[in-house]
Q: What sequence folds into this?
């Protein structure tokens, strides 16, 4: 079984302005430094022809893990995340996101869509989390979805601030 990830972030600027930010190498360096957590790194970053592809690593210290997770995974957790966003096609840009943890049967993947609306633009993330661990997989999925939504919100708040600067 899997759990849905659904999140929309509203911006008061046009999609072109948000797209300009997320296709900037400096944006990603600043974002990972500000909200990536301790030990976060950019593993690969490509910006070409108004397309961005980034892979980053983020560490969740063992002491911050819920007990149901720390009973299964020993030590700190390193999450490998990837995001893409294609060029704007009219008022819309599409992309993907994914995450995995080496050696753990966890799958996180989905799509993201940036599009203009009446008051600026919206970035919508739609995906799913699947944990293939008998009995406790569903509980871990719920914890991961909660953490992902918290992380997305923090990243989107960072993006709003970065654009206004």
A:
């Amino acid at each position: 079984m899997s759990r849905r990830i659904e999140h929309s972030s509203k911006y008061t600027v046009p999609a072109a302005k948000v797209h300009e930010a997320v296709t900037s190498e400096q944006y990603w360096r600043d974002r990972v430094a500000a909200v990536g957590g301790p030990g976060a790194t950019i593993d690969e970053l490509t910006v070409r022809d108004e397309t961005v592809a980034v892979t980053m690593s983020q560490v969740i210290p063992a002491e911050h893990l819920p007990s149901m997770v720390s009973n299964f995974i020993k030590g700190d957790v390193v999450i490998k995340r990837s995001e893409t966003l294609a060029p704007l096609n009219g008022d819309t840009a599409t992309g993907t996101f994914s995450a995995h943890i080496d050696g753990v049967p966890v799958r996180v993947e989905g799509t993201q869509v940036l599009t203009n609306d009446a008051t600026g633009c919206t970035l919508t993330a739609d995906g799913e989390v699947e944990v293939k661990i008998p009995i406790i997989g569903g509980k871990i999925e719920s914890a991961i979805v909660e953490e992902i939504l918290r992380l997305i919100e923090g990243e989107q708040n960072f993006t709003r601030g970065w654009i206004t600067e």
Q: What stands out?
A: Residues 106 and 131 are 5 Å apart (CA to CA). The first helix runs from residue 15 to 22.
